[in-house]
Amino acid sequence: MIDHLGVVVGDYAKSQAFYREALAPVGYSKVVEVPAGFDGGGATTGFCHADGSDFWIGTGDRPTPPLHLAFRAPSRAAVDAFHAAAVAAGGRDNGAPGLRPRYHANYYAAYVLDPDGRNIEAVCHDAP
């Protein structure tokens, strides 16, 4: 289990808005913003889930995709909501919500490219 993950983003404000909207349906919320220079580094924003896992974005050298991030969703409806929110927040569709039986019979996922071109997924493994 991953406790937390951080990535460098190209446009901090755009990515902050994107992830705030895209991750809300799967249970993440913005919990802290650390300004540039606070600890000698760039600006960072942390998004936290009730399960204790964190996802951080920050400023730094320009990121180089590809990178694939998958966030577990509590339901298929949350996957659908993630996809809609992510596209509305400026993400590019990279796979509409639906079953992906090549992984397993109940693998329900959606994919969106974030502002830096990373493949961001929401996935639910539960039966309907």
TrEMBL record:
InterPro entries referenced in this protein's UniProt entry, alphabetically: Glyas_Bleomycin-R_OHBP_Dase, Glyas_Fos-R_dOase_dom, VOC_core
TM segments?
none
Superkingdom of the source?
Answer: Bacteria
Name the PROSITE patterns for this protein. Answer: VOC
**What range(s) does the VOC domain occupy?**
1-125
Output the PANTHER family linked to this UniProt entry.
Answer: GLYOXALASE FAMILY PROTEIN (AFU_ORTHOLOGUE AFUA_5G14830) (PTHR35006)
Protein name, please? VOC family protein
